[in-house]
Design brief:
single chain, mainly alpha
Length: 185
């Protein structure tokens, strides 16, 4: 407290103030990094879920690989009220980038849960064909949406996040800069 409220014209007090400012910033970066790491781990799980969802649709529902985007987009319409392409356009996400690299963690989880339900229903009910798979996936995502809305959460109102790859790079740079400041003292 003495250092923080002391006269910064004195060398020792100025150094102490700098030290505490840097330590505070490092702690902020660390906390942000931990939250981001949770998002990265969720995204990894989501990629695995999507891969398994694709395999189930192709092998068990007998839908062509090139039609999976149609099914996914129908699910997004049921969950968010908009198809994937429109969601990307509205949020200025490049067409070639995965939507989930930008979605709020709860929406990533919601989409993943919808896919897992669809996989289970395909296996359990023997769903075959594009139309039935679209219907199943849409119905599952409507149910996920219903649950979220009942809890007072509108999926389309959750904020998009910074691109997960850019955020990782930014955090690595911030942490490196904070370490440089400390090591130069």
């Amino acid at each position: 407290m003495i250092a923080m409220n002391g006269d910064s014209r004195k060398v020792q007090i100025a150094k102490a103030q700098t030290y505490f400012a840097v330590q505070t910033r490092k702690q902020e970066i660390l906390q942000e990094s931990l939250r981001h790491q949770e998002r990265v781990e969720l995204r990894k799980k989501s990629k695995e879920s999507y891969k398994s969802y694709n395999q189930t649709i192709v092998k068990e529902a007998r839908v062509r690989q090139g039609q999976i985007g149609i099914i996914t987009s129908a699910g997004d319409k049921a969950l968010f009220g908009k198809k994937t392409k429109q969601l990307k356009k509205d949020n200025q996400i490049p067409d070639n980038e995965p939507l989930e690299d930008y979605t709020h963690s709860l929406n990533t989880t919601a989409r993943m849960f919808g896919r897992e339900l669809t996989k289970e229903k395909i296996q359990q009910d023997g769903v075959i064909g594009l139309a039935k798979t679209i219907s199943t996936h849409s119905r599952n995502n409507k149910q996920v949406r219903k649950l979220m809305v009942e809890e007072g959460i509108l999926p389309e109102k959750l904020p998009m996040q910074q691109d997960i790859k850019k955020k990782t790079k930014k955090l690595n740079t911030s942490y490196s800069q904070a370490n440089l400041i400390t090591s130069s003292e």
